[in-house]
């Protein structure tokens, strides 16, 4: 008999405590940028690109705080639930929630499919980065630092620090969809690698407290 | 009920052998695993709960083989040494979550029954972070019992508990062994003495002894001596003999000594499990 896929998403949300609400607050703040910047896309798009995708790592990190960081997390691995559903599947469900939030933010600011695709690809990358960092480092603080450091260094250097690993487009106006798709492809590939490495690390995780 | 068979179990971490050729047959009831820190107890617990794969050897419980980890997880419950999850969540919510993950059918009824069994019904609404150490351990046992496992594995059950909580927790553990195999791993001999019928002693990853509590205590028969000495002679005697316990009686000390030949003036004493354990450890080390 195969180990079951079981979810308890309401509980996962409750376990994150106040940290669960941070992306929601950031989403509301993002939508407030629109009237503050008087709808200027030249300012809005970079502001969105620099802040919003970064917070996609948030739920991927805090979702695993108890399982990986707290003493006794090993108990959860002794239950008849697959590590696939405890790991990548749970993180993916929360990423879907973040994708919906992205659609709402983009919809409020300036309904544009190309902007949505651009941000979604970057969010996908950051959610994967958060997941991988957390499964590897097993500390929320360190994992957040990885995400913030990556964002900070790429933004400050205009993506020139490690051009190969840059996910930002640094555009100040809406780009055509085909151009966004073309630029997003490497981001999606890197994101998929991070999601995969995150699950591999979670699957192999045996260093219990 | 079936016995748990552990056959020639080996667990290696790179070059370090944490478990070396361990074979045990564990009958239903309470079974203790004794050993000092680093003996391999926690490794054995983790292999039994499928958290770690064995390097060699076999484990079976009836028709369930440990080669099928998924099947094993359906029949085991585990309480690790440190259990401090979900601090801002209520006890009943934690248990409900565990019941969901374990695929328990009638969650509400089973949680009610288990809360009653571990005497936590009146604390069900409390958050985990508000509970005392003993209560957290009881929640730990409750989560292990959800799903009615055939094998319950408890690592260092009374570590960090105050004496009263320790007594209460031992009583609870004792009540579990009626229809299950309950395996308790500890370095506190009293825990085993108070709860188990049989035990095994591990040292440096090897099985040193196994058997009934009486038999293990009996290993030190004719080797335990009681000697009462004046206060000023204490250090001299302690240097000359293997003093395993001392009690102050006014200005004198009553010493419990482990020795093959009686120290002058000493009286032979009936051995306890602790004496047998210490004797086995000394014998194994020499």
TrEMBL record, chain A:
This is ABC transporter permease. The keyword Membrane applies. Keywords: Membrane, Transmembrane, Transmembrane helix. It comes from the Bacteria. The keyword Transmembrane applies. The chain crosses the membrane at residues 12-33, 45-64, 84-109, 115-137, 144-165.
From TrEMBL, chain B:
The keyword ATP-binding applies. Pfam families: ABC_tran. Keywords: ATP-binding, Nucleotide-binding, Transport. The keyword Nucleotide-binding applies. One of its GO terms (molecular function) is ATP binding. Residues 4-229 form the ABC transporter domain. Belongs to the ABC transporter superfamily. This is ABC transporter ATP-binding protein. InterPro entries: AAA+_ATPase, ABC_transporter-like_ATP-bd, P-loop_NTPase. SUPFAM superfamilies: P-loop containing nucleoside triphosphate hydrolases. It comes from the Bacteria.
